[in-house]
Structures are given as structure tokens and as C-alpha cells.
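Exercise 3.2. Students should predict the tertiary structure of the chain below and write it as C-alpha cells, then compare their answer with the key that follows.

Predict this chain's 3D structure.
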Amino acid sequence: MNESRIDEVLRVLDPAPGFRPWHGGASPLGSLRGVSELEASWRPAPGRHSIWELALHNAYWKYAVRRRLVGGPSGAFPRRPSNWPAVPAPADAKAWKADRALLRDEHSLVVEAIRGFDPALYDEPAPKPTGSGSESSTTFGDLIMGVVMHDTYHTGQIQVLKRLYASQG
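Answer key:
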């Protein structure tokens, strides 16, 4: 039973080429195709997140979930601040390409971790992040499903931002 849940997660998280979900949304990686550095760094209003920030935020949470799934020593996410990394200055094409690669790499690593995950542990409590104290009530399944929901949510935001940017003329 748990193995089929993991298979379903992987089908949604890392869809086969040409697969289009019923809701029409792309993956976070797919939603960035054709997005320039200017479009990625644009904000719809002061204090609102840009596509670039959403891409980095997604990369961080893929990293954070993977670290909890695989255990081992804590590493350090390569961008700061971790949860909402700052868009680099200058926000140029080279930096945008590097940050898309960071998202792609973290995506591949979390998919690999889920593929290798023992389905028998799906409903077991996941360890809390290093240094956060007591035992967690979050299961491994919560983390795995959470990364899918997080992707879907922010992919929707990226799609809306692309439309808003295009409507600016």
C-alpha cells in the first residue's frame, strides 16, 4: 500500500515528459521555461515575492525535506537566507541560469531520496531537523506529500505572476 503512495507522489512530483496534470499546471521546473531574468525578478507590488524568489524558496524546501528523509549530517543550503534566499545582485541571465540549475539539482535530489525511501516507514515519525529539540509528530509521509503540495502551490503562484507580468505591456 505505501509503495503505491510513493509511486503516486513520484508521478506528480516528477512527471514523465509530456504528462500534463488534470489541473493543467506545470511542475516548478516546467513553469520556469522561457522566463527571462527580467520577468523572474519582477515584483507585482512592493513586498511581494518574485518568480525568482519563489524558485529559490522551492529549492530550499526540496533541500530541507530531503535532509529529513535521508538523515545524516546537516549540510548548508548554498543560498542565504535559507527559506527565502535573496535574488542576487546583479539579477542577470547568468545568475538566473545558476539558480534554475540549483532548483533542478535540488529537485533531482529529493526525487532520488523519495525513490529510495523505504515505503514501510511512510507513516513513521520523521526526525526533527538537527538542533530543534523533541520528537516530531510529522511523519515521513507528511514530508513527502508536503513537498508535492508545496510545489503545486508555488507553481500556481509562478503561473499567475507570469500572466501579471505579461499584462504589464
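Discussion points: Residues 119 and 142 are 13 Å apart (CA to CA). The chain has a mean pLDDT of 90.
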